[in-house]
Specification:
Blueprint lengths: L12 E2 L17 E2 L1 H11 L3 H8 E4 L2 E4 L1 E2 L5 E2 L2 E2 L2 E2 L7 H4 L5 H4 L2 H8 L11 E2 L1 H19 L6
Antiparallel strand pairs: 1-9, 2-4, 3-4, 5-6, 7-8
Helix pairs in contact: 1-2
The structure holds iron/sulfur cluster (SF4).
The site of iron/sulfur cluster (SF4) has 12 residues, from loops.
């Protein structure tokens, strides 16, 4: 899939999440969630979707996003002790970080992402181009089904 392309990351990129939690806050933004993702989170927390929406979700136009805490570094509402408290059911937007088109536009974009993500470093394991493309596709699929990722962190 990557052979014969001119993708700048065709030889793969180095990344390993350390779980530092920096990508879960720091700047204002939106972590978009679909109805399906909200259902999964509600089930994980053992609450109704209605209660989840009331406590943890904000609406912008016809889209839903996780609440963030402006007074606390814009951290995601689900960030507890620098860890994601809904990790197994976190939204695709989170699952696919840092493999976002925005970060993969160019080497410079990738280097810029590395400024805020310690998991992107020369010692980290190599993630193949194929794996990267799969992550991009996963996110695109979600996007096409209403995730509508834009203006994210
Ligand atoms: S900033 Fe990078 S290393 Fe830290 S939790 Fe997020 S993805 Fe993992």
């Amino acid at each position: 899939m990557c052979e014969g392309t001119d993708l700048w990351y065709k030889n793969g990129l180095r990344f390993n999440c350390t779980g530092c939690g920096k990508c879960c806050g720091g700047v204002p933004g939106y972590v978009w969630v679909t109805e399906q993702e909200m259902l999964a989170i509600a089930q994980y927390l053992n609450i109704t979707v209605e209660l989840l929406k009331r406590l943890y979700i904000r609406q912008r136009d016809n889209r839903y996003a996780l609440i963030e805490r402006p007074k606390y570094n814009y951290d995601c509402i689900f960030l507890k002790d620098k860890k994601c408290s809904i990790y197994p059911v976190r939204p695709i937007q989170c699952k696919t970080f840092p493999w976002w088109e925005y970060n993969l536009k160019s080497k410079d974009s990738w280097q810029a992402a590395a400024q805020n993500c310690e998991g992107i470093n020369a010692e980290a394991p190599l993630v193949t181009c194929l794996e990267i493309v799969q992550q991009l596709k996963l996110r695109k699929l979600e996007d096409d089904h209403g995730g509508q990722f834009s203006g994210e962190r």
